[in-house]
Every structure is written in structure tokens, then in C-alpha cells.
Amino acid sequence: MEHKSTGRQILVYGTLAVMLVFALFPLYWMLNTSFKSQGEIYNLTPTFWPKDFGWEAYDKLITEKGFLGNVRNSLLVSLAVSVFSISVSMFAAYAISKLNFKGRSFISRGILYAYLMPRAVLFIPLYMLVSAIGVNNSVYGLMLIYPTITIPYATWMLISYFKSIPVEIEEAAMIDGCSRGRTLRSIIFPLAAPGLAATFIFSFTLCWSEYLYALVVVTKSADKTITLGLSEMIVGDVFAWGPLMGGSIIASIPVIIMYLFTSKYMVSGMTVGGVK
Amino acid sequence: MRTASDNKLAYLLMSPVLVYLLAVMVLPFGWALYLSFTNKVVGMPAVFTGLKNYAELVQDSLFWKAAWNTLIFTAAAVFFKTVFGMIMGLVLNENIIFRNLFRVLLFLPWTIPTIVSVFTWQWIYSDVGGVLNFLLLKLHLTDRPLGWLATPDLAMFSVILVNVWRGIPFMGIAILAGLQTISKDIYEAAMLDGAGAVKRFIHMTLPSVREVTIMAAVMTTIWTLNDFEIIWLLTRGGPSNGTQVLSTLSYTIGFLNMSLGKAIAIAIMTMPPLILLINYVTKRSLTSGD
Q: Among residues 20-39 of chain B, which lie with CB inside 8 Å of chain A?
């Protein structure tokens, strides 16, 4: 390696420090606010550490705002949608990555198209669909339409995982007399397990963070998800900053933990195909 | 080698996904496309009106303002995300202590739900108790508190800043992945030949991460073009439509004015550039993936 000049070191660590402050300050501010009392939050001079560290905001969030109900709805929808999406996507992804069939390139292109199709274009058609079926206003409506986000995504991710499994392994198993189904069950899917787990986690976080579809589909308060629960804490111009920041912390913790476990899959997951 | 049994098996395996996508994505989209040619209002039957919605939009100055704002918002956000993402990638590619820890920390803004980042920034921007004005006043960078979301130009800056804050990690990590594929030997050879840091960056680093950077930037452009949450939650498209973009205009017309037909027409009109971008990504990733 090259000689490390001091100037270069200062430049690198200086830039790193600026980037860290920029990236982390809002997160620190969220945490800081959530442990302050109502009075301290509305103080004109902000304090950089809570004077009386307390749980007032979280208490209010749970007893007054019913945030646990939102958390339960989000958990339910995200789990159901992710389980369903992965269990159908893995078969489709296997077919697209390993089998030779007519229309293969058309279908893989279609999947990528569906993945990139923005929600801002689809939200009205999907709203009309759930209204027509009569599952608007409930978590079931979200369970019906969230796979439009997760299935194309999961299929696309899994195609690249399956492609990375050498075809020889499969051939060897089949020469040894394994049926296609048995090969899938006892060789391919176990080998792809880390990929399946990572895809599951990303699907979960996509549902967990979704706002636009939830906004147009669910209006019944008992069925609202965390993103709706948070946005409801703003009434007119009145912001309940304490509970809002506390709820933000609660909404962020599960996704942050999940990302930490899968951080090494992050890159390949995000820019599938692009960086190969 | 294609066999009949492969065809059957493949379609059998794909059938749940294909049926679902056809029923819940393709058909509703086709139906919506039809409704954009009608005067569909929530709760009323649709009457075919041909190109009326489109003609009205083209003549509506608000539509053009939203289109212009979308362009500004996207261009500025993508530019800054790419530049800072490049810097993040370069810094993380250096031999620094706790590199993995810093990589994870710098990635956090991208992981948390968008709505959470929006509220946190809204609180930072707030004119009552907001920490940004407090810090700027304290450092004497301004002599009076600024209304970050109160004037059209400043509000546009503020929504772009939130989008950039969220989006840098994606670009940074993608570019970092590209940088890590560059072999160290080439650099050493270039250094022995006396190439300076700037020269090495322009002639070696940039060309080798060009592909990844363009790909990640195009994907970011697709997402940024259709960003709804950040703008809707921070400004509702205001003040005086200063941050009104096509996605928020479509929502306003569809769900506040109840004119679904016209709202869909707006979404449809954003499709041509979108299709170009999506085509670019599909072409690139399908050729490199196969």
C-alpha cells in the first residue's frame, strides 16, 4: 500500500466526521426528544440532553395514542405479506434462474418492471381494486396489495441468489436419483437459505415502512398501521413531538436491528445485477 | 436445451406469482388507464370523455408548475446524492479504523422508515423549539430564525435536503461496492509511474465505478421522481404550490377533489420518462445478469 501522508489522513477522517454528524444528528435528536418532558420539549432553548430523563412520551404514546395497536397491525400485515411473498417468489425465481422455457426473458423483464413501477402511479388503481372487492378500510386490503411491492422485489432478489448456486450441484443430485422436487427441497432451498432470510427481512421492512397505500386504503382507526398512527399525531398545526419521536424510535428499532443482521447482503440486494 | 417438460414445470412454478401480478397489478392498471379517459369521480359512475382530462391538464398552469418542481426536485436531489454518495464511497474505501462500524452508522438514514425521517426533520426545522434555527443563531450564521418550510424556495430546499439525507447511503454503498472491485495492483503501478491522486481518480477510479454509479443514479432517479411521502408530510405541496410535485398533485386531485380520472391522467403522464428509465435499468441488469 501507499504511504499514508498526514494531510490525506486528516482529509479522510475530517470528511468522515462531517458525514457522521450529518447522518446521525437527526437520529440523536429523535432519541433525545423522546426522553424529554412535555415542558422541556417546548422550551425555546433546546437542551442537548434531557434534563429529567423520563418515559412521559412513551407513556402517552401507549396509554393515550394506542400506539401498540398500530404496532400489532403493522407486525401482522408485514409478517403475513412477507411469508406469502417469499413462499411464492422462491418458486418463480427458481424457474426463471434455472429452467429454460419459452418467454423467459419477457417474464424476467416484466418482474423487474413491476419492481420499479412506482407507488405514486399505482396507488389509485389499487385503491379502486380494494374498494371494488370491499376490503378497503382494513388490514386485509393492505395484505392484498402489499405483495405488489414485495413479490417483484423478492423474485428479483432471489433470481440472483439462485443463479449463484452452481448448476453442477443440482445435476449431481439428479444423477444420484433425486427428483426435481426433492432436489429443490433438500439442496437448492437450504443452500439459498441466507438469501431467503435476507429477502424476507427486506420484504418485512418494505411493508413496515409503507405509508402511501396505507393512507388511501385504511381509514378505520382500529386497523391503522404505525405509519398512519404516527401521522395522526399531528392534529392541524399541533405536533405532539414527544410521542411522535417516541413512536419514531419504536418504529425504527426493528428495522435497524434487522438491517444489522443482514448488512452484508445489503449491497447485492440493492443494486442487483448492476454491480456484477 | 429446451424441453416441453421444462416449459410446463416453469409455468407451474411461476403460476402463483404470474396470476397475482396479472390480477392485482396489470388488470387494475389497465382499468385505471381506461378511467383516465373518463370523468370518474369518487362514488359516481364513469362517463367516457376521451382526452378531456389530458387536454385540461396540458392547459393547466398548476400542472406545468408541478412538472417543473418535479424536475427541479429530482435533478437537485439526484445530483447531491450522487456527489455525496461518491464521497462516502471513497472515504469508506480508505484503510480506516472501525470501517465496518462507520459503514453501518452511515447507512442508518436509509434503513429507518421514510415517515420517521420526515417527522424528525420537521421537528428539526420547526420554528417553535426547532434545533436548526437555534444552532444557526448560536453560531451567528443567521441573525433571525428562518421559516424552513414557510417560503416556497426555502421549502423546496428543505424537502430536497431530507431526500438527500435519506438517499446518500444507497449511492454510497453501491459506489463502495464498485470501488472494492478495483485491483490495488493497478493503483500501485500507476503510482510508480508517478500519477498523482487527482489523475488517478479521473483516469482510474471514475471509469471503473462509472457503470455502478450510473445504474444506482438511474434507480435513484426513478424513486425520486415519484417521491410522495417526504413532500406530502412536510409541506402538502405548499406553500403556494412551491413544492407541489406531480405525485402530490395527483393525490390532491384524486383524494381531496375526488376526481380520480384526472388524478390517474397525471400519473399516466409521468409514465413516458419513467418507462425510458426503467427500460435502461432492465436492459443493463438483464444483459449483465445473464
A: 20-21, 24-25, 28-29, 31-32, 35
